[in-house]
């Protein structure tokens, strides 16, 4: 992934959905200023230096997840799959 200097911006937001220590404190993205396409996702953790006591951010930058297409709902697919499995089991019962 090549990013042209000056043509992109990065945004970080407080992760309000953090429920576990391993979840990032901040989440965000890098986007193209002109097209507003997301180029990368950012996860950030607030840490404290053991030597100096200074607070710093540790970042992971990754490729963006693909946008969900209309009707592409993982939860609904899982529910439908469970219903189908349940129906197969019910069909096997002889009474």
Quick description:
With 95 residues, the protein is of the alpha+beta class. It has one helix and four strands.
Task: Give an overview in words.
This protein is an alpha+beta fold and 95 residues long. The chain has a domain at 8-67. The chain contains 1 helix and 4 strands; from the N terminus they run E-E-E-E-H. It has a 4-stranded antiparallel β-sheet, with no helix packed on it. It is flat. The model has no long low-confidence stretch (mean pLDDT 81).
Number of strands: 4
**Over all CA atoms, what is the radius of gyration?**
21 Å
Name the strands of the widest sheet in spatial order.
Answer: 1-2-3-4
Strand content: 25-35%
Question: What is the succession of H and E elements?
Answer: EEEEH
Which structural traits does this protein have?
95 residues, four-stranded antiparallel sheet, flat
Secondary-structure topology with pairs:
Blueprint: E1 8-14, E2 26-32, E3 38-48, E4 55-62, H1 74-92
Antiparallel strand pairs: 1-2, 2-3, 3-4
């Amino acid at each position: 992934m090549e990013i042209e200097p000056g043509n992109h911006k990065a945004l970080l937001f407080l992760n309000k959905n953090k429920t576990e220590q391993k979840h990032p404190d901040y989440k965000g993205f890098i986007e193209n200023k002109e097209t507003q396409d997301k180029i990368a996702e950012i996860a950030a953790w607030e840490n404290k230096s053991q030597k100096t006591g200074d607070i710093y951010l540790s970042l992971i930058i990754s490729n963006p997840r693909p946008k969900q297409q209309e009707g592409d709902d993982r939860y609904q697919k899982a529910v439908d799959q469970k219903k189908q499995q349940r129906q197969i089991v019910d069909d096997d019962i002889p009474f």
